[in-house]
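User: Can you predict the 3D structure for this chain?
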Amino acid sequence: MQGGMNPTRYSLLQRVGIVVLGMSVLSFGCSLFNREGPTVTCQDLGNGTTNACKDGIVATCSTGKIRYTVCDDKNACDGTWQTGGRYRCAERDTIPDSTGDGGQPRRPSDAAACDPGGICVIGTTGDPSGEGEIRGFTLDGSLAYFTNGGSVWSVAKAGGSSTQIASKLNFTPASAASISVNDGFVYLGAQPGIVRVPKGGGASTPIATIPLGELRSFAVDDANVYWIEDSGKTVRRGSKLGGESGVTLASGITWDNSNGNSLGRLSIVGSNLYWVTYEFAYRLPKDGASPTSPSVLTLLPGAVDFALDTSTVFFSTKPNDGTSSVIGQAPLVGGPATPMVSNLRGAGSIAATETTVYFVTYEGTRSGISRVPKDGIGGPTVVVPIRNAELGRIIVDETSVYWAEGDKLFRAPR
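Assistant: Here is the predicted structure, written as structure tokens:
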């Protein structure tokens, strides 16, 4: 009944060889184990949004029926690591899967399921196949928003049920990772170009029309949306409310995409836009009225991602010549780039707080997350040990670092 369970732990129906569909059957079965279990209905459990636990028995609503999982430890419900409404048999376990009365997936099974190292699954698309892989995510206040390239979900950063707020969106491969939240809306790279969806769910509204496959990245501020188009190598600006043809801020920009950077990020700091190519960072005023040439900052060969504060661009490299990757920094006013961490086997996404830079490190197809102080004193520290996955973009908030693996969204103490 319960997928992914520990083979030494069995659900009640497996132990007594019957299908458990209600309390009358459970009461009979539990007498065999001297346990009563929780007396609840699907309505009590919010049709699958929470579960209940008593005497080491977890009750879950699945397709309108109460189902039970018997834990080896009859005192499991009282564990200090338990969270009310998200019970599990052991601290390392995920919560038994649930679905509501209407058969719509509920996701308490992945809500704040944490391992001893504090790595937690906080949300999921519910589809472990390639179709359900999370391709982009962002944070806003207490919520995270994520997409698999066709639908969008929201979930509490603390963990909980993942709520689908949009579906059947026509994403393109280059733009699926572009997702941003601003002023009550989620902005996404989807046909006919860039669209927005209310954070609480609803119909999508086109904001910018961009030829299919041309969108590389975008960013949003209080008034406008900015984006890079592949054709003509242009940077453009339009109202975030839509209804404008857009203003070209720069054209004919060049980049070296030989290391797969593909202009994966467009960022706003102050009055400027920034993006990175193989060896350079570019700065362009966001309020220009006509095309102009961007300023150029020289980085180190192989730059793949970057993060900014008010004075510095921090970047990671993946050189084509097989040399070691580095984490580096360069002043925004111009000047030489310098390494902060050297001799890495590989490096990927990067994020920065007021005092610290976080970055993904690679060992072949496996990866982890480390951090280093901005002043470089003390060297790097492992935040998330090497995992059997290639991690993509990371985001850091006041307490945690977030990333996606397959169909799941994770967090860990930063």
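The chain has a mean pLDDT of 81. The chain has two helices and 34 strands.
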